[in-house]
Protein: ABC transporter domain-containing protein
Organism: Candidatus Uhrbacteria bacterium RIFCSPHIGHO2_02_FULL_60_10
Amino acid sequence: MALLLTLQNISKSYGLQAVLRGVDAVIAPGWRVGVIGRNGAGKSTLARIIAGTETADGGQINRDPSLRLAHLEQHAEFQADETALEYLMRVSGRPEWECAKMADRFGFRKTAAAEGADAPLDSMFTAAARLSGGRATRLRLAAALLGEPNLLVLDEPTNFLDLPTQLFLEAYLRASYRGALFVVSHDREFLNRNCDRTWEIEHGQATAFNGTVDSFLAEKSGRRELVENRNLNLDRKRRQLEIFVNRFRAKASKATQAQSKIKQIARLDQEMEDLPTALPTARIAFQPLAALRRGEALHTYKLNVGYGDRVVARNINISLPRGSRTAILGENGAGKSTFLKTAIGELPPLAGSFRWPSTATLGYLPQLAEAEKSGETVVERLRRLAAPRTTLQQIFRAAGNFLFREGDWDKPVSVLSGGERSRLQLAVLTLGSYEILALDEPTTHLDAETSDALATALKEFAGTVVFVSHDRSFIRTVATELLVARSGTLGRYGGSYDEYLGELATDAGLKDVQLSDSPTADKPAKPDTRADRRRLRQLDDRLAELRREHGAILKHFTENPTDPDPAPRKRLKEIEELTEQTEEEWLRLAEKLG
């Protein structure tokens, strides 16, 4: 099987910090690789090295001559005043008609009475710099696909995307794009739906796994638990042998036995398996409330929100109960953040009214980090924004809880990464005593582990939470109420979150996606691949079944580490051989289907 890309012993450092240490991996045609790891682990660095926009310090990259690679970065620079169509032409080098056709497929209309700053935001003649995060990502993806790549490298593609655009992207990747994928993301739902292979970047190394992210994490957890229990049993035996040796070594009658025990100890030491140090996770806990009050938390009456004379959402009439956790949903630009900023007093209402309980204390997490104060350090930021009478010891504890070690305390906030700044903002919230938390896109720069920790902390928080988010897993875990911004207003949604997603997929997201070009007379008929695709699905199901059985046996060993029955071990070996055979057939079919 021809490989598109081979990485051999790739290393990369920034100053004294080694990010990648001897990474070895391959990408074959049709592979869909999801890349996970903590913030700062080197995921984006590896993506840039693969894409050729950054150079490795050591190692070798072999690219097949057939490789056509496109790279969708987290950020892209638009030139001043260039339109969306001009951006596509500049980046791709393709003619205007071809760029216009691709722009239309991605939801940019061709008709417009004006250009640049005066054009509608869904026009291909609008200024690219005016686009929201979601539409800018659509535009960058269109530019990437104009080159007809067979390897698409996506770095955090769902950051800043609203749900309709996320569904749009998924539909395109699953139904229209047939090449290989390399996706760096903290969005596990996106990875599980679009990637069937997983790479984890940890301690500078890449671990490859043939399966989804959830399957990998389950197997990793089971494997670690199995090794830990086995090591504990070996250590227990070792200590017993050491007691015998220490007690009888000096006795001539026991000397031979003591020497035998020493050899046993040496063998046990060899059997002990080293485990990598588990990475720390932020410890998030909000201040407990003295008492849980009942009644309304937020009430609005004929509320209009917006900026200046521009009304974004009007006639908002809602009532949220105390103790609820409300997710505000909707497309970018529909008024979600504007409503939240108005409700907390950051923006004045354009009409109508809103009220919180008169004695309620409110904590706010903005979408964008506070403007930098010259030279302000981590601890100085915490001291300035912490609640009155917060002690220095409490500040140091909060810094540590959010993974800022003593060496980070004097680090200027201006040099922190996006993930570090988000953790710092959350640390500030935990230093105050709030009855209401208002959070605007709290998970955008967080890794999956910190997002999970935040979701758990919010579920345990007895107060009221109102938050804007597009993170599907986070919303499912946290939300008890839903507000939806659409059609120029904002109101409660009566169904479940999955029902809302279903509506989007049916009514908005998927209708905008041209899943495939319409067949024309001048196109040759495509070969019938239905049988091969059906067999590929059967192999996928078989691999999933084998992984489940493999995990069940590992769990059995974890719970019964001394089980003498040879049958489970024999079956484990059979499963591993069957998995290898099934994967080989899967690869042959995947390569055949392209």
Observations:
- The chain is about 40% helix and 20% strand.
